[in-house]
Records
---
Amino acid sequence: MAQHLPLRTRLEEYNEIQTELQNSTFNDPNCQSWYKNEKGIITNNWSRTVVEYQKMVEDVDFEEFVVEGSGRDEAERRKIIHVGRVKGGIEL
């Protein structure tokens, strides 16, 4: 079984996004957004536009992960998998 663990640098970048969310209108105590859980923590993973998000996740870069187990050789061989982004059901 393969295990993919993100590198610390990628986690730190994710935490920067969470800081942005904490400073957004979603974090206002009067906001009853579905992005908040029962403890008031914002669970959304993105604070910018959908297109920016799609561009960020359209490629899986295995060099951004520590890959262990049966998938390691495949990850080292492929390096990057292009997933693409979808708009109106058509890959761009």
---
Amino acid sequence: MMVEIFAIYLGVVFLIGIVAGRFSSTSEEGYFLSDRDLGPVATALSAGASDSSGWIFIGAAGFAYSTGISTMWMLPGFAIGYAINYLVVGPRLRRYTARKGAISIPDYLEERFNDNSNILRVLSSVIIVCFFSAYVASQLTAAGKAFDVLLSVNYQVGVLIAVAFTTFYTLFGGFKGVVWTDVAQGFIMMIVLVVFPLYLIFFQLGGWSPFINQVGQSDPKLLSAMGSESGAAVFGFVIGLLAQGLGEPGQPHILQRFMGSKSDKSMEGATVIAMIWLVIVMTGSNLLGLIGRVLLPNLSNTEYVFPMLVSDYMIPIAAGIVLAAIFSAIMSTTDSQMILVSQTVSHDLFNEVFSADISQERMVWIGRIVVLGIGALGAVVAMQEARAVYWFVLYAWAGLGASFGPVLIISLYWEGVTKWGAIVSLVSGTVTTIIWAEIPALSALIYELVPAAAVSITSLVLVSHLTKAPESAAEELAIASSDNPKNNTNNESSPTLDD
């Protein structure tokens, strides 16, 4: 019955993705931004689902299994990151890109700094493609692990099933198909992360107090806010967990939802929904890790904790639903990253840099070919199962957050930012992330996002002071302002299926 339920779920998601594509125009803006018509629910749940990924079920639950309640330091960090994204970055980025006709982050950077050299476009495109390739591979790794435990399907076969299914509906549904499936999958994820932990605590472990007591008996350090760390290591541990959320403003696949949101009003409603989503998924995932420590105390691979709990403690019908939730998390991120890499290669590089004189319809088909390519590349990397999902995601997250976050936030508010400041910031954030992550002594000290972001911000400010900002900088900032009289993009009276 579990397999049947899961098959029904796959069929429904596939249908949603294909049907959704029929409601978008055939233009690039339609295929890559859903014609900028996303309402608050679509904006928030699509951003949340694509943000959470297989990491929330596989990686974060496994990390909580190992470290205990100290994992919850991530929650306030992500709350700050969400607030920055939805209140500081999102509204201004939405207005600016809508008024300038920009459909990607490289578009924004080139427009904002009047860069006719294509340096910013090419550099930002390369960063996106490189880190998103690793990101896609991490999601397919999570899928392979879930199939292995729950369906006894060979890991490599599970990877192939995941990439084939996700690639196909992304090909024809475009961004609207991705958003609609993300919303459906987001609801499934929330329901499972509320119901499943409560079921295990009250019906398998005897209630909240017995559960906490059993966790403490398993290992008292699991109930310590500092985990197993002591001394100076506590600082690095806590700051590293808090800092994970600060990578939010630099994630292009999340920012793309803001660019596709139809109005300031939609962004306001999305903010409330997103915060509720965050608390549910972070708390549920971490509870499942602790529950697993009690019910499955001897796991050799901690990232198998959630699939193993489903396999051992759920009836087949419920297990099918939970498996659907895991796959929802994985697909909602994978499809978002595929469509964004597709946009980067076809629009930002092929069309804008190489100035290919072809129709928008044909450009969309080039984007679809790129979707196939990134899916194949991600599958090849995932087949190696070289890294844990948790660390694979954090590596890509840090690289994108440190590279794009500082440039986006500061350039939306400070007219003194220069093209060369932005270039050096992008390069320094990327390089610092890679170097820090690859040197064990440094990576053990603190999460690479922290030093990489610090270097990126510092270099941005210093170089900008040493170079000249565009003469139109003040005008460019005014375009993003809420009181700009030229705003004709708020379609408040035009409800859509994404409301």
